[in-house]
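Input structure tokens:
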């Protein structure tokens, strides 16, 4: 996969203002705050506003206003409604603290947040899944061909565009593990079909706040800025695999057949039948993991077999 260039973004900031309202506004301070809020919300770069009132000190307030950047916050801070303040005790801007601990707290990491989805044992077992959002791009053929590699580049380009766009509005997330669905048109077991007949659907899970409109915008930007035309085939889908059977495979992707055979035996013994595509979640990164230690979750949606 070729190296990717991502757009630079400014860090969102929180403007914190601790202030007292003039005594002659003691009867209409709620109206004053309402006017202030409506004024602030019209400024370019505004994200979110929250006002807090002191319990023990009369007419003492704290405003917390989130902005896209420090420049946009400063442009708004000297507007005329500040004239109703009796005293400004603190007015400053704060950005997220970026040490390793708080970075994990701020970012949505689905791998950590949804262990039910990303953990599997060495023995087949049943799992219940809810409908989830994914980026998706489809194709046909062996994973070694260029079309597959270009599709991987396209879906990761869209994923990172969405990540950085979301980060700029305070919704950063970790790009999730790559996944893939595999099948053949004839319906034959994937392990028995020639690789050139494999149809695939590359998947990357997305946070719930990612919408189709955001993906469409990301596609336009990636095509325009990165000249990745295949990005046009990336879509946002909802996948509902519901009841599934899964197992953790350790080792080479080429040695999955025996693991799949164990999974299929479990399905038959529990009076179930396959109800969807062969699904793999690539838990390990093959670029820096020895082949014998690669971990891959193999998952099949199932339903009750009819006797």
């Amino acid at each position: 996969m070729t190296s990717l260039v991502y757009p630079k973004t400014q860090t969102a900031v929180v403007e914190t203002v601790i202030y007292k309202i003039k005594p002659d506004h003691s009867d209409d301070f709620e109206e004053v705050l309402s006017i202030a809020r409506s004024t602030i919300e019209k400024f370019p770069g505004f994200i979110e506003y929250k006002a807090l009132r002191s319990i023990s000190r009369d007419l003492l307030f704290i405003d917390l206003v989130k902005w896209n950047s420090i420049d946009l916050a400063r442009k708004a801070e000297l507007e005329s409604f500040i004239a109703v303040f009796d005293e400004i005790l603190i007015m400053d801007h704060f950005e997220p603290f970026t040490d390793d601990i708080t970075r994990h707290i701020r970012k949505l990491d689905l791998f950590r947040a949804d262990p039910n989805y990303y953990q599997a044992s060495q023995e087949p077992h049943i799992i219940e899944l809810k409908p989830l959002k994914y980026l998706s791009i489809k194709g046909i053929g062996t994973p070694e061909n260029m079309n597959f590699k270009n599709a991987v580049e396209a879906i990761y380009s869209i994923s990172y565009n969405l990540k950085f766009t979301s980060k700029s509005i305070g919704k950063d997330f970790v790009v999730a593990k790559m996944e893939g669905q595999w099948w053949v048109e004839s319906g034959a077991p994937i392990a028995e079909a020639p690789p050139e007949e494999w149809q695939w659907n590359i998947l990357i899970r997305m946070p719930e706040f990612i919408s189709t409109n955001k993906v469409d915008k990301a596609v336009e930007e990636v095509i325009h800025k990165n000249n990745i035309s295949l990005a046009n085939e990336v879509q946002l889908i909802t996948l509902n695999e519901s009841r599934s059977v899964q197992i953790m495979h350790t080792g080479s992707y080429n040695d999955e057949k025996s693991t799949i055979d164990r999974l299929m035996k479990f399905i038959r013994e529990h009076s179930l039948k396959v109800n969807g595509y062969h699904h793999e979640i690539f838990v390990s990164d093959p670029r820096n993991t020895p082949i014998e230690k690669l971990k891959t979750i193999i998952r099949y949606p199932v339903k009750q077999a009819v006797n």
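The domain at 101-304 is CATH 3.20.80.10 (Multidrug-efflux Transporter 1 Regulator Bmrr; Chain A). The longest strand covers residues 85-94.
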